[in-house]
Amino acid sequence: MYAIIRVRGSVNIKPKIKKTFELLNLASVNHMSIWPEEVANLKMLKKVENYATFGTISEKVLGEVITKKAKALTGELDVKQAIKTLASGKTIKEAGIKNCFKLNSPKKGYERKGIKKPFSIGGALGNRKDKMDELVKKMM
Questions:
Q1: What is the CATH number of the domain that holds 19?
Q2: Domains identified in the chain, total number
Q3: pLDDT truncated to tens, each residue of the chain (140 aa)?
Q4: In what residue span(s) does the Large ribosomal subunit protein uL30-like ferredoxin-like fold domain sit (predicted)?
Q5: pTM for this one?
Q6: Which structural domain range is residue 13 located in?
């Protein structure tokens, strides 16, 4: 599963990118959403890679995020059942969780070059691949 975190704000961005953020459930800075690894989702991520960071998230870290930051769609949230449902390959909606997690700013900040440079050269934007877990842990 991909975890996508919005890093930059909405000032002076194109309307198509704003619409893509709406489709990804990323309304504000430091919001995270979870999406399956599909071609359509990857195309949306390529469109917003200059304003967000993304990468694959492990089940362990996903479980921590759900226990600390998840909100139920209706009624009470059964955390263990939700984690089992996601591990079996079902969608986050079928697990009964809202697909928007409000995270804190990362402890000790983003990477050295800031939020305007890609991750490949030391910044915070774009594809992190397997290093997404480290950022999510810093933000919880």
A1: 3.30.1390.20
A2: 1
A3: 889 999 999 899 999 999 999 999 999 999 999 988 889 999 999 999 999 999 999 889 988 998 898 888 888 888 888 888 887 878 888 888 898 999 999 998 888 888 889 998 888 998 998 889 999 999 98
A4: 2-51
A5: 0.90
A6: 2-57+99-139
Question: SS3 for 125?
Answer: strand
Residue 88, in any domain of the structure: no
Q: Under DSSP, is residue 47 helix (H, G, I), strand (E, B) or coil?
A: helix
Provide Rg for the chain, Cα atoms: 14
Q: Is residue 94 part of a domain?
A: no
Q: Which long-range contacts (CB under 8 A, 24 or more apart) does 94-98 make?
A: 96/72, 97/66, 97/70, 97/71, 97/72, 97/73, 98/70, 98/71, 98/72, 98/73
